C-alpha cells in the first residue's frame, strides 16, 4: 500500500514534469515551472480521458510512459532553477537554519499527506467525485451534486494519482504542489537578486498552518497558489526573454487557474493585461488567450451540455436551470461572505490567530501591512499587484484558505521589507521566520490556537506507513466514516441514499444525495417533510371565483416580496361544479421556474411545483388551454407554509387581452390526505431513492423511527445514532 501511494504521486509528478519539458523545451529549465505547466497539460489530458470514458489505470500508465519516453533524458538532467542569470544564493550562514526548518516541516507534511485522507471536503466531495470517475471510467451526468459542476482541474491530477495509490496518493499530489510553490518562491527570489528574501518568504508560506493542513489534504487551494505564482514567474521570464513558447505556457497556466478553482479566473485578465501592456502586439495576446481558452472551454462546455449553465453552480439567474435554484444560490453566497462572524472587522484576527474561519495563517501575518513598504521597489510593486489580483475574490468566500493564493506574494513582499529595513541586519527577517516556524508547529498551536481551528496535530508516521491499520485510523479521526462503511455493507451495489448530513463519499461506491446539494434533492426533502409536518401537508384550498366566461388562458400572479417560497400541489379549473378535464393541449408555463409544472395537473397531492426563488412581484404560473374554455373558478391545492404569498388571477379573453379575474382567493382548510407518510415514501422511491439515512436528533428522525410502519420503511442498519431505512 505505501509503495502504491508513492508510485501514484511520483508517477503523476514525473508525467507532469515530462509534459512541461516537452512544451517549454529550453525556454525554461526551472523544474517547478515545468511541473506546474505540465500539470495543466496532464489535467487537460485526463479531462479528455474522462470525456471519452477511458479512465483506466492501464490507459494512464501507457499515456504516462509515452510522455516520459518523449521527454527522454531532458527530464532527468539537473536544472538550475534560477537560470544562467541567477545572481546568487542565500547566505551560507543561514542555510543550515533554513534547511532544518524545511526538513522538519517536510517530514510533518509528508507523513500527513501519506496518512489516510480524512479532511472534510476531501473525503466528501473532492475524492468522492474522483472515486466515482474511476469507477465509472469517466464523466457521467451528475445533477444531484452541485460540486460536480465546479471546475475540477486539480482533481484531474488527483484522479491520475488516485488510479494507482487511491486516496493518499491524491493528497500527496497536492503536497507536491506545496513543494513546487515553495521552490518557485525561492527560485524567483534568487533570480531577482534577493535570495535571502526569497528563502524567508518561501518558509513563511511553507510553515503556515493553513498551507500545511490544506496542502496535505485533497483540497485545491495551495494548488491554486502554485498556479498563480507559476504564472507570475512565467510572466517575468517572458518579459526578459520574449520567447514564444513561454506565451503558450502563460496561456495554459492562466486557464489552469480557472480550471482549478473559479475564484482564480482573475489569472486570465492578469496574464492578458500583462502581455498586452508589455508587448502591445495583438498576436502575443491572442496566443495567451487561446492557451487559456483551451483550459477553460472544456469545463464550460461540460456544464452547458449537462446542467445548462456554463458557470454552474453559480449565476443561475442568468442561466436558469432546474438543478440549482436562485434562492439557494443567494442564501449560499450570503453565508460565505460572513460565515458566523458578526462583522468583517473580525477577519484579520480570525485568519491569523483565531481560526474560526476554518484555520489560520499564523500570528506573524498580523505584520502583513508592512508589505506595503515594498512598493518602493519594482519587484515589490509587481508582487503586491499580483497579491491584489489573486486576492480580489476573497470576500466572496472569507474562509481562511481563500487567502492562500495571494499569500505567497504578500509573504515575499514582507520578506523584502524585513531584509531591507534601513540600519537593520538580515537577522531580522530570519528571526521572524524562526518565530513563525516555532508558533506554527502543531504542539505549540495547541497552546494558543482555538480548539476547533483546522490544523495538523502530529507526525503520523505509523499511519503513513500503514503500521497502524487505515480502517482504525479513519474510524478514530474521520467523522461518520463508520456510517459510510455501514452504508456500503448494508446496501446493494448501485443503490442511492438520501441524507441531510454529508458523509465521506470517498469511501463508498453508493450514490449519496445530500439534501442541500441540488434542487432535486431539496424537492425530495420537501416531499419527506410533506409526510409528517403539518405546515407542509397540502391542506390549503385557495379558490378564485369570477363570472362565467370564455377564456383561452389563465394566469396566477404572485405580487408580494417575502422570504417564503411559493409552491402549489394541484391547480384545478372549474365550470360550475364540473372540473375541466386536463387536456393534452394544455400548456403550462411559469416564471421564474418553468420546471416540474406537470405536477400541478397529475392528480397527486404528494407532488408539487415549487418556485426557484423567494417571493417577488411578477412571479406567475400560466395555463394555456390551446382552445377556448368556459370557466368560472380556479382552485389551488397547496400547503400553508407560505404565509407571505399574495395572489391574484388574470385571464386571457377571445381577443388575446389579459384582464383581472379575481383580486384575491378565498382560503379554506381541508383535512390532510390519509396515509400521507406512506405516499411520501413511495414518491421518494419513484424519484430514484432507495434508502434514507437519518441521524438521531435530526428533524424528522424521531418520527421516522416511531412511525416506520406508517411510512412503510424498514430499518436495515444502525451505527452510533445513524439509522438506514429502506424505502418500500
Tertiary shape: elongated
Largest sheet: 8 strands, antiparallel
Q: Give me the Rg, rounded.
A: 29 Å
Terminal-residue CA separation: 41 Å
- Mean pLDDT across every amino acid position: 94
> How many structural units, i.e. domains?
3
Quick structural overview:
The protein is α+β, with helices and mostly antiparallel strands and 728 residues long.
Give your account of this protein's structure.
Strand 14 (714-719) and strand 15 form a beta hairpin. The protein is an alpha+beta fold. The protein is elongated and about 95 Å long. It folds into 3 domains: 2-447, no CATH class; 484-530 and 683-726, no CATH class; 538-669. It contains 25 helices and 15 strands. The strands form 3 sheets. Strands 3, 5, 6, 7, 9, 10, 11 and 12 form an 8-stranded antiparallel sheet that branches. Strands 2-1-13-15-14 form a 5-stranded mixed sheet, with helices on one face. A two-stranded antiparallel sheet has the order 4-8.
Structural key phrases:
728 residues; alpha+beta; five-stranded mixed sheet; 15 strands; 48% helix; elongated
Produce the secondary structure layout.
Blueprint: H1 2-24, H2 31-51, H3 57-71, H4 92-114, H5 120-135, H6 153-192, H7 195-206, H8 209-215, H9 221-241, H10 244-260, H11 267-279, H12 282-307, H13 326-336, H14 347-354, H15 378-390, H16 407-418, H17 427-439, H18 442-448, H19 461-464, H20 470-477, H21 481-490, E1 496-499, E2 511-514, H22 519-530, E3 540-558, E4 562-568, E5 570-575, E6 578-579, E7 587-591, E8 609-615, E9 619-638, E10 647-652, E11 658-662, E12 666-669, H23 676-686, E13 691-695, H24 701-706, H25 708-711, E14 714-719, E15 722-726
Parallel strand pairs: 1-2, 1-13
Antiparallel strand pairs: 3-9, 3-10, 3-12, 4-8, 5-6, 5-9, 7-9, 10-11, 13-15, 14-15
Helix pairs in contact: 1-2, 1-3, 1-6, 2-6, 2-9, 2-10, 4-6, 4-7, 5-6, 6-7, 6-9, 7-16, 7-17, 9-10, 9-11, 10-11, 10-12, 11-12, 15-16, 22-23
Amino acid at each position: 500500500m505505501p509503495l502504491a501511494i508513492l508510485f501514484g504521486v511520483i508517477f503523476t509528478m514525473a508525467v507532469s514534469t515530462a509534459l512541461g519539458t516537452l512544451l517549454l523545451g529550453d525556454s525554461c529549465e526551472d523544474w517547478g515551472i515545468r511541473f506546474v505547466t505540465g500539470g495543466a497539460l496532464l489535467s487537460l489530458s485526463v479531462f479528455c480521458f474522462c470525456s471519452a470514458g477511458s479512465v483506466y489505470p492501464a490507459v494512464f500508465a501507457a499515456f504516462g510512459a509515452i510522455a516520459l519516453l518523449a521527454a527522454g533524458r531532458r527530464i532527468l538532467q539537473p536544472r538550475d532553477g534560477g537560470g544562467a542569470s541567477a545572481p546568487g544564493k542565500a547566505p551560507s550562514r543561514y542555510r543550515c537554519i533554513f534547511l532544518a526548518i524545511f526538513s522538519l516541516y517536510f517530514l510533518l507534511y509528508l507523513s500527513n499527506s501519506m496518512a489516510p485522507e480524512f479532511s472534510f471536503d476531501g473525503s466528501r466531495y473532492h475524492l468522492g467525485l474522483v472515486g466515482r470517475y474511476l469507477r465509472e471510467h469517466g464523466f457521467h451526468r451528475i445533477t444531484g451534486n452541485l460540486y460536480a459542476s465546479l471546475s475540477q482541474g486539480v482533481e484531474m491530477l488527483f484522479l491520475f494519482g488516485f488510479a494507482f495509490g487511491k486516496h493518499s496518493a491524491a493528497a500527496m499530489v497536492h503536497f507536491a504542489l506545496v513543494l513546487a510553490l515553495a521552490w518557485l518562491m525561492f527560485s524567483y527570489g534568487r533570480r531577482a537578486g534577493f535570495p535571502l528574501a526569497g528563502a524567508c518568504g518561501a518558509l513563511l508560506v511553507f510553515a503556515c498552518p493553513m498551507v500545511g493542513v490544506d496542502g496535505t489534504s485533497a483540497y485545491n487551494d495551495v494548488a491554486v497558489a502554485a498556479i498563480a505564482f507559476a504564472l507570475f514567474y512565467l510572466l517575468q521570464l517572458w518579459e526578459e526573454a520574449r520567447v514564444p513558447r513561454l506565451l503558450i505556457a502563460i496561456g495554459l497556466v492562466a486557464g489552469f487557474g480557472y480550471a482549478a478553482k473559479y475564484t482564480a479566473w482573475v489569472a486570465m485578465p492578469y496574464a492578458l493585461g500583462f502581455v498586452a501592456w508589455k508587448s502591445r502586439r495583438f498576436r502575443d495576446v491572442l496566443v495567451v488567450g487561446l492557451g487559456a481558452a483551451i483550459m477553460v472551454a472544456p469545463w464550460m462546455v461540460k456544464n452547458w451540455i449537462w446542467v445548462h449553465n456554463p458557470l454552474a453552480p453559480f449565476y443561475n439567474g442568468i442561466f436558469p436551470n432546474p438543478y440549482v435554484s436562485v434562492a439557494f444560490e443567494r442564501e449560499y453566497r450570503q453565508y460565505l461572505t460572513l460565515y458566523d462572524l458578526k462583522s468583517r472587522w473580525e477577519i484579520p484576527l480570525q485568519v491569523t490567530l483565531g481560526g474560526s474561519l476554518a484555520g489560520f495563517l499564523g500570528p506573524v501575518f498580523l505584520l502583513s501591512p508592512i508589505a506595503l513598504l515594498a512598493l518602493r521597489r519594482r519587484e515589490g510593486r509587481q508582487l503586491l499587484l499580483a497579491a491584489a489580483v489573486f486576492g480580489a475574490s476573497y470576500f466572496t468566500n472569507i474562509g481562511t484558505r481563500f487567502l492562500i493564493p495571494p499569500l505567497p506574494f504578500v509573504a515575499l513582499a514582507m520578506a523584502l521589507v524585513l531584509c531591507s529595513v534601513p540600519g537593520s541586519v538580515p537577522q531580522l527577517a530570519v528571526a521572524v521566520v524562526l518565530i513563525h516556524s516555532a508558533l506554527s508547529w502543531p504542539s505549540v498551536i495547541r497552546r494558543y490556537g482555538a480548539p476547533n481551528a483546522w490544523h495538523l496535530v502530529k507526525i503520523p508516521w505509523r499511519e503513513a506507513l500503514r503500521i497502524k491499520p487505515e480502517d482504525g485510523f479513519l474510524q478514530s479521526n474521520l467523522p461518520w466514516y463508520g456510517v459510510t462503511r455501514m452504508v456500503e455493507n448494508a446496501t446493494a451495489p448501485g443503490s442511492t441514499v438520501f441524507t441531510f448530513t454529508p458523509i465521506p463519499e470517498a469511501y463508498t461506491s453508493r450514490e449519496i444525495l445530500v439534501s442541500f446539494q441540488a434542487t432535486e434533492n431539496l424537492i425530495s426533502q420537501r416531499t419527506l417533510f410533506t409526510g409528517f409536518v403539518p405546515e407542509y401537508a397540502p391542506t390549503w384550498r385557495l379558490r378564485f371565483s369570477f363570472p362565467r366566461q370564455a377564456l383561452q388562458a389563465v394566469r396566477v400572479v404572485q405580487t408580494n416580496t417575502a422570504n417564503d417560497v411559493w409552491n402549489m400541489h394541484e391547480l384545478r379549473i372549474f365550470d360550475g361544479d364540473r372540473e375541466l378535464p386536463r387536456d393534452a393541449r394544455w400548456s403550462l408555463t411559469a416564471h421564474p421556474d418553468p420546471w416540474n409544472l406537470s405536477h400541478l395537473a397529475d392528480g397527486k397531492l404528494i407532488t408539487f411545483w415549487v418556485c426557484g426563488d423567494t417571493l417577488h412581484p411578477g412571479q406567475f404560473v400560466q395555463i394555456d388551454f390551446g382552445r377556448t374554455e368556459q370557466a368560472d373558478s380556479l382552485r389551488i391545492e397547496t400547503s400553508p407554509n407560505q404565509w407571505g404569498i399574495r395572489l391574484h388571477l388574470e385571464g386571457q379573453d377571445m381577443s388575446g387581452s389579459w384582464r383581472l379575474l379575481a383580486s384575491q382567493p378565498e382560503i379554506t382548510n381541508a383535512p390532510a390526505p390519509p396515509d400521507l407518510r406512506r405516499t411520501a415514501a413511495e414518491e421518494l422511491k419513484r424519484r430514484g431513492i432507495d434508502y434514507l439515512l437519518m441521524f438521531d436528533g435530526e428533524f424528522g428522525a424521531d418520527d421516522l423511527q416511531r412511525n416506520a410502519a406508517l411510512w412503510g420503511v424498514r430499518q436495515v442498519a444502525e451505527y452510533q445514532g445513524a439509522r438506514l431505512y429502506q424505502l418500500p
